[in-house]
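Memo to structure team: turn this sequence into structure tokens by end of day. - J.P.
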Amino acid sequence: MTDPSAFRAAHAVWFETRMAKLVAEDGWLNLQGRWWLNAGETRSIGTGTQNDIVLETGPEHLGQLTLNADDTARFVPQTGAAVTLDRANGGLSWRADRFLLEITTLNERRALRIRDTQSQAASTLAPIRFFDLDPAWRITARWEALPAPISLKIDTMIGIPTHVPVSHVAKFELGGQEMALLPTYGTPDRPQFVLRDLTSMSETYAHMRFVFGEDVTDTSVVLDFNRAINPPCAFTVHAVCPLPPRENLFEMRIEAGERRLQR
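Reply from structure team:
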């Protein structure tokens, strides 16, 4: 039997880590915006209305960004040295003044995402509410390899579908029913499951929640629904979140994990 005090202590440590990532400089609360980019274009960035990309806060002119068709880029700041970027060698993220900038990828499209490290958004975040903690929602599922890996079409919150490789399925019993979850993102040792259940109608985020697999072996994976979290899209309109595949739509209530955010 699970030691209740140890279970709660482990959950508290997990939640502290979850919150630290959420409010970090590269977390989801301080995003100023996301702007689509086209290869070959030079875009000016700053708070001045003459810029191509207008920021809410910061200098009138932060700099100019040029994206090339080979996924290299060059950023020329208003002051300081130019930055050369290469997706294949070092990535497409950099710092300018108080801002963190990165060029993200969605299929063949590219977008600029900018974070303000001096944002006060974290200080105004309402406390995240949870369902009551219950060890019964921590489940060891069978971790079964598919006969052959598949490419699964996943839609997103902005209506641009993507294809992700899937090689395993998590199977378990819940409420007397045999259930299955497909991992669509994450890593081999921390697969990510995007799901929706009937609590989404009024109590949890309407579109999806995320659960990350733990203690993965060749034959098993732990799914702790107490750690089901709101996706980035619950915190900012500037994130692009995947919707759950139809296999991960549960016609039952999973009364565990994070509840819908209070506004």
